[in-house]
Amino acid sequence: MPWRGAPSLALGLALLLSGCAGLIGGKASVPTGDASRPAPSGQGNLPGQGNLSVQKGRPGYVIGAPHGTTDTATDVIGLELARRTGFGSAVATGFGKLDADGRRYNVNRPTEGVPGSPPRSETETEGARRVFEAYGRSVAEASQGPLRLYVEVHGNAHEDTAGRVEIATVGLSKEDAWQVKTLLELIRDSYLRGLAETPRLEILVEPVDTLRYSASASKSGGVLGRSEKGLHVELPKVARTTSRDAYSAMLGDFLIQWADLMARARGR
Predict the structure, then answer these.
(1) What is the C-alpha separation between 42 and 48, in angstroms, rounded?
(2) CA 20 to 30 Å from 96, out of 48, 68, 81, 112?
(3) How far apart are CA 212 and CA 204, in angstroms?
(4) Mind listing the pLDDT tens digit for each residue in 163-183?
(5) Nearest residue to 245 (alpha-carbon basis) of 45, 32, 12, 56
(6) Which residue segment(s) compose the domain that 159 sits in?
(7) Positive or negative CA dihedral for 166, 172, 178, 182?
(8) Does 261 reside within a domain?
């Protein structure tokens, strides 16, 4: 596991002393099984012929998949993570392919644009704002009160990020980011000991690491910036296709344990 000059020993001991390490190796700590695509929530009359679905769970904790079908399989992964963690979920599907250029409603912010294009190329439109406001209401409904942790699941197919999971963050200090990175790396390596065929994706977490996908637009004018703490998780193609089950299990296990750590810290 790469520790790269971080306070690895101290942080490792902190994780062990917190009691979370007892779950790291326990693959039975989360249930298994297939997730089905969520049913529409009844949000009608939205432009783009898309659908929004809401599932309530642990108050204040929400998994979001704003690009459920345009970021392939993120709707399925989002719902699976909600099932594994007990968090609520807000999933958007069908808001892509607005024209021949592949423009889509960005859903988690009030703009439309071509996936992978820089934020400066996005355009605010009335339709995009309506979809964004409806998605924001879906997240609020799933949260059932203050949004303490919002986890957005995304996917990309860029060559530069094919071998890594990138996590942009909101409300996390550098120490918090090291905790996220270390815990997820420990869980990843524990799972991969029994899955030789599954690739070992690098874990990059902001602000410890420099990311390609920093989610700047969603942080400044989107849903991500509304949360007390937020994780914007970018998954490469392999984590959403051939290794989807393994990485969904890892992320689910990580979210359960990290949410527990946050709850303990809040109670001190």
Answers:
(1) 15
(2) 81
(3) 10
(4) 999 999 999 999 999 999 999
(5) 32
(6) 35-173+204-253
(7) negative
(8) no
Residue 165 covered by a domain: yes
Token pair recorded at residue 239: 């984590």
For residue 15, the model assigns a pLDDT of: 54
CATH number for the domain harbouring residue 131: 3.40.630
The string of pLDDT tens digits covering residues 216-261 is 988 988 999 999 999 999 999 999 999 999 999 999 999 999 999 8
Among the residues of the chain, which ranges form H helices?
8-18, 21-24, 74-85, 126-143, 174-192, 216-221, 237-240, 244-267
Does the pLDDT value for residue 264 go beyond 90?
A: no
- 8 Å CB contact between 148 and 61: yes
Contact 157/236 with Cβ under 8 angstroms? yes
Q: By the 8 A CB rule, do 63 and 87 touch? A: yes
Which residues are registered as beta bridge partners of 64?
Answer: 90, 152
On the question of pLDDT at 69 being above 80, the answer is: yes
Mean pLDDT of the chain: 85
3-state SS, residue 60: strand
Q: Which residue type occupies 11?
A: L
Gap between the Cα atoms of 165 and 201, Å rounded: 6
The count of other CB atoms within 10 Å of the CB of residue 140 is 17
Residue with tokens 């359960």: 256
What residue type is assigned to position 143 of the chain? S
264 three-state secondary structure:
helix
pTM of the entire predicted model: 0.85
Query: Is residue 163 included in any domain, yes or no?
Result: yes
Residue 259 counted as domain residue: no
Distance CA 257, CA 263 (A): 10
pLDDT band at 121 (very low <50, low <70, confident <90, very high): confident
Please state the domain count of the chain.
1
